[in-house]
Specification:
With 246 residues, this protein is α+β, with helices and mostly antiparallel strands. It contains 5 helices and 12 strands. The protein starts with a strand and ends with a strand.
């Protein structure tokens, strides 16, 4: 690279690196529904990355976050060079589908993906958030429970006890490449096998559609979730690092 690089903020959360009026790098700051700001930088050269990062970090409030594939050592080192440190590791699992013989918790019914009601899901979302925030803190969670806009088709299966929603599992991704997201159960209903029943129902229905494998991200510090997925034969395929600049 022989010409000077010019960094331009082209929108509120977008930056371009220009060389002779040619875009050689892009940076973006994406707010998550939980309020955190995640950065991404796409460039071919480390010097361009450093210049984009320098401008973005100077113009944005901390804390800032990013996620990298742990196997991408170059990208990880670029972020670490700018001051980011590892906040946590998430394992990406390949989860085999199939029909599993799992005892149904007494008095609990599983509502399949796409059939849950929006209102009770949102009520469950609010209560689980409050429970998590009062214990480990919501920032320990890998994703928002209900980030889709109101009125969009539900991507959740739910566990119902009586007339109350007590647990949910989120399924996203393309139809042939499903991803199992957050599994959550109300605090007073935990240790009854509800999460296991939810996961078994989702995997069984995916298997019935001819899908052999789903994926899932699990925080390595969440030992209960690790045990849950590995109990269904899930295997670690890769890992991501969430980095933070405070």
């Amino acid at each position: 690279m022989n010409s000077a690089i010019v960094i331009t903020r082209v929108a509120e959360r977008h930056w371009h690196a220009l060389e002779d009026d040619r875009v050689v790098g892009r940076g973006e700051a994406s707010p998550r529904p939980d309020g955190r700001l995640f950065l991404s930088i796409d460039s071919w050269h480390g010097t361009v990355f450093d210049q984009l990062a320098g401008v973005m970090l100077a113009e944005l409030p901390t804390p800032l976050y990013t996620v990298v594939d742990e196997a991408d050592r170059d990208l990880t080192s670029h972020w670490q060079r700018t001051g980011f440190t590892t906040r946590r590791r998430e394992w990406e699992y390949d989860v085999p589908t199939g029909v599993h013989s799992v005892p149904q918790p007494a008095g609990v019914t599983i509502v399949p993906v796409g059939e849950a009601d929006e209102g009770p899901l949102r009520e469950l979302d609010r209560e689980i958030r409050a429970e998590v925030e009062a214990s480990v803190g919501w920032l320990s969670m890998p994703a928002e429970v209900l980030p889709h806009p109101a009125g969009a088709p539900s991507k959740h299966a739910a566990a119902v006890a009586g007339h109350r929603y007590v647990g949910l599992v989120r399924v996203t991704g393309r139809p042939r490449s499903p991803r199992i997201g957050l599994i959550a159960v109300r605090a007073e209903e935990q240790r009854r096998g509800i999460a296991r029943a939810l996961l078994a129902d989702v995997l069984g229905r995916l298997h019935g559609k001819g899908i052999d494998t789903a994926s899932a991200d699990v925080n390595e510090a969440n030992h209960a979730a690790v045990a849950l997925f590995e109990g269904f034969g899930a295997r670690r395929a890769s890992s991501n690092l969430e980095l933070v600049l405070r």
